[in-house]
Design a protein that fits this description.
This protein is an alpha/beta fold and 394 residues long. The protein folds into two domains: 202 residues, no CATH class; 151 residues, GMP Synthetase, Chain A, domain 3, CATH 3.30.300. The chain has 13 helices and 14 strands. It has an eight-stranded mixed β-sheet with strand order 4-3-2-6-7-8-9-10. The longest helix is centred in the C-terminal third of the chain and has 29 residues.
């Protein structure tokens, strides 16, 4: 006689499989954690400023409904701006962001943020805790470009751009251009977690333009240097070029040079460099060698600039100016006890054992005592025959 229980087991198995299949289908049939585009406020840029007892966070959000055409102010339809700027204050940047979220109809979405600006007061107070909070949220992109501003960072979000629809796009392009060194969130995190390679940031200012008071034109005037996570100084103008040589982030640029025979504009087109640490007894030395190639773009008050002797004078002037710029930057870094050029990391790679035993724990006391030897060789090519070929008749 057949046992009824045995007959029911296959049916029970089929029933259980059907339940499991139905449960899986229910889970796969929809997006339980979906976020609709219409419910999101896409952050293009944000700014963090230090205020008494806390921080103010400002965000720039594009408004698609106001991007109808180029007519009107800011390129929006009906003269309305194609973006909105809002801000909130809190004891920490995260608290300020939470307060801002609590009174907005859309969810703040930072995954598309391209630019993050810090007021210089934030850097002077210290970035370690600030950056720690930024990296704990998955939406925060590690490739976001960072810059430091003169004065309040929020003022730069509301500046006008004559070319770009959003000023943050203009800032982003400048931060990636030949006049700067692109610094991203992931770069700063790596530098702040290592000894011998302090963080550095592009430094933004409003350009002083005649007949414009106040000016809304933004420029990169140099770099902010740090020591132990805090801003300790600025490297600006011509010395900023020297800093770029040290960082070995060379990009072609044009500069003016003066000799006893005339004035020249020279395009510095190529560079090869070697920075090598070595020891003399217990003293640390660095040998810095730069090989520079350029060509003349303009010549004034120099009727014989094609003459080899005049070319040599110009080559000496180019080499001397670049050498002085580099030497001034090194002295400034040593005076500020800031290794934003990464000399400590070069020393570690050459002498890893001694670095860990003797130098790592007191590098900020050792760095100002290091000796630097800078040499620059310049070659001027593509001099041309402008006057003889075009400006003089046979």
């Amino acid at each position: 006689m057949t046992n009824p229980t045995e007959n029911s087991r296959p049916l029970l198995r089929i029933g259980l499989l059907a339940i499991v299949a139905a449960a899986c289908a229910a889970l796969l049939s929809g997006c339980w954690d979906r976020r609709e585009i219409n419910d999101l406020a896409f952050i293009m840029a944000s700014a963090v400023d230090k205020e008494k007892d806390g921080y103010r966070v400002s965000v720039l959000v594009p408004l698609p409904g106001n991007m109808g055409g180029p007519s009107g102010g800011g390129g929006g339809s009906g003269g309305q701006k194609p973006f909105a700027i809002d801000s909130e204050f809190g004891r920490t940047p995260s608290e300020a962001t939470k307060k801002l979220q609590n009174r907005l109809s859309r969810q703040l979405y930072f995954a598309h943020r391209r630019v993050l600006l810090y007021g210089e007061d934030v850097l002077k107070d210290g970035l370690i805790e600030i950056m720690d909070g930024s990296t704990r949220t998955p939406d925060n992109r590690l490739t976001t470009l960072i810059a430091v501003t003169s004065g309040k960072a929020a003022d730069y979000l509301s500046a006008k751009s004559n070319i770009e629809r959003f000023v943050t796009e203009a800032i982003r392009e400048m931060l990636q251009s030949d006049i700067s060194i692109p610094i991203r969130v992931k770069d700063v995190i790596g530098q702040m977690n290592s000894v011998g390679d302090d963080a550095r940031f592009p430094y933004l200012e409003f350009a002083p333009i005649k007949d414009k008071n106040p000016s809304n034109e933004i420029q990169i005037s140099g770099f902010a240097i740090t020591s132990k996570g805090k801003m300790v100084g600025l490297i600006k103008n011509e010395d900023a070029l020297g800093f770029r040589w040290l960082r070995q982030k060379f990009k072609p640029y044009m500069d003016n040079f003066q000799t006893e025979k005339g004035r020249y504009s020279v395009q510095i087109g190529k560079n090869s460099s070697i920075i090598k640490p070595y020891l003399v007894g217990n003293n640390i030395h660095y040998d810095l060698r730069f090989d520079v190639t350029g060509y003349i773009t303009e010549a004034f008050d120099s009727p014989n600039y094609e003459n080899p002797d005049e070319t040599k004078l110009l080559e000496n002037a180019v080499a001397s100016k670049i050498q002085n710029e580099i030497s001034r930057v090194i002295k400034e870094l040593q005076d500020k006890r800031s290794d934003s050029a990464g000399f400590g990391q070069l020393l570690y790679r050459s002498y890893p054992g001694q670095w860990n035993r003797s130098w790592k724990n007191n590098w900020y006391d050792i760095f100002p005592t290091c000796n630097f030897h800078v040499s620059v060789e310049a070659g001027i090519h593509r001099i041309g025959m402008l006057r003889e070929n075009l400006a003089q008749r046979e």
